[in-house]
Amino acid sequence: MPEVASVxxxxxxxxxxxxxxxxxxxxxxxTVLETHHDFARAFRGExxxxxxxxxxxxxxxxxxxxxxxxxxxxxIAMYVRGKLVVRTDAAKMGRANVRLVPQSALLESIAExxxxxxxxxxxxxxxxxxxxxxxxxxxxxxxxxxxxAREYRADLVIGADGRNAVTRKQSGLKELSSPxxxxxxxxxxxxxxxxxxxxxxxxxVGEKRIGLAFPxxxxxxxxxxxxxxxxxxxxxxxxxxxxTEELIAGLPAFLGDHLRAHRNLVAAATLLDVICGRxxxxxxxxxxxxGDAAHPMSPVGGQGVNIALRDALVAAxxxxxxxxxxxxxxxxxxxxxxxxxxxxxxxxxxxxxQQHQARxxxxxxxxxxxxxxxxxxLLMRTGLMPWLNRKEYKLMSQGVVPVKLVV
Length: 407
Description:
407 residues; alpha+beta; seven-stranded mixed beta sheet
């Protein structure tokens, strides 16, 4: 009987951890290398759409998911310059059954489940520096630096190290990049009882920014400001009190006053440099990219974590039979290529939809953006906006193509 192949996964995000669990439960030796010592991050997508929840249930982890505290966004409230335009059922905006789940808790839960299998190993605090190649094939990675450098080897390396992936940068693969017009400042403040309720997500469209807020399971408000790309440096140059006030001014009083009371947290916001694109190919011999390493997603529509989980299911379907058979490198690479081929249509469609929504909502300086802002009250009150976008909303909630785990 051939020896079961080994896999090295770089990055313990949703794609990497989900795939590691699926491989380990089939007895495939898998090691995950994670740069950080824990799963806490200043920004991680928390919105599990129906497609992501379905992926977790297919993995057999539905009960674990249900034990993680979450908030369900049932209502969306839209404001324009601080004035309420409409409150609507989130389902009408393609947000049916969205769970706001702390991603750190989700990843810990998957890691705990994977840890029940002896073929799984997670090493935290390991910074991968470069790919190791022999005879034109990726055979492992080198982590650490100087005297502390260490090599990890495997039959297949999987890059799941996110939007700033070392594996992607060193792969030599070409990327199709979609220019973005906005960045996001993210921060958390304590929840306030003046907020409408714990099931409402709100959006406020201002002159030069869009404000966002939604409750979280840890009794906070996740809040943020959408700003023009590259504007952050000029904002910061004006001093904390001035630039934060520029963003806060015009918000509904219940939120604006609360943010002023926690101005220090607003000033300490994390900048999310919004990028969106996809690698034309996801593989070179011995290496497969998945998740944001293969296709960094825009935050529009909350697709990132859900797409990543679906990547893991498809990757497991193609890789498990090949790895269990102890196949040679050429056969493994062929299976890796099929992962890219199956996922490509959904990635292209999802990113195209993200681009369409971003052009309409986040470009206030062009005529289309200005017209949209003036028409928002009418479009929302009449239900025309949800109707016009109903197909996109459905696909971004449930997924563009069927994904079924078969291994």
